[in-house]
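Can't paste images in this forum, so I'm doing it all in text. The chain is below; anyone willing to post the predicted structure tokens underneath?
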Amino acid sequence: MRWYWIDRFIEFHSGRMARAIKNVSLAEEYLHDHFPGYPVMPNSLVIEGVAQTGGLLVGEYNQFRLKVVLAKVPHAKFYCEAVPGDVLTYTATIEHIHPHGAVVKATSHKGEILQAEMELVFAHLGEDFNNRELFDPGTLTHMMRILRAYEVGKAADGSPLKEPPEETV
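Text version of the structure:
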């Protein structure tokens, strides 16, 4: 990933649910053009932040051995705008996970206010992609580390979430 649309994880339960926050700041360059004089975080970037939250949750479930991509957004509904000064809380919950991918239900909140809700479908890329490097090995583990997922995360058995061994990433 080139851009991070989440600032850090505040909760992470392997194979089940993750919660991350995004601070919307006027210092972010895209807000100066969207829209001039009325800065609003584009809904597509909210979807991207929620997808990063859910995608890392889905990828971590298999210790990043499978390549995960956002395949489809069957449902997305927005109730209000995200503007500078807002703190968005993204919650992603795995509804179904199987060898071909996963279905994630997700929300974005501004404090107690529901900002958006969506359903995301992730695909596990097939064997054709096993030998193709889509990003540097270890990038996702590094992202999980800097976003503090290993500090707040819990494994499926309730123990602290641990980084996968280097040979698996």
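Strands lie at 8-13, 17-23, 68-78, 87-98, 101-110, 113-124, 153-154. DSSP finds three helices and seven strands in the chain.
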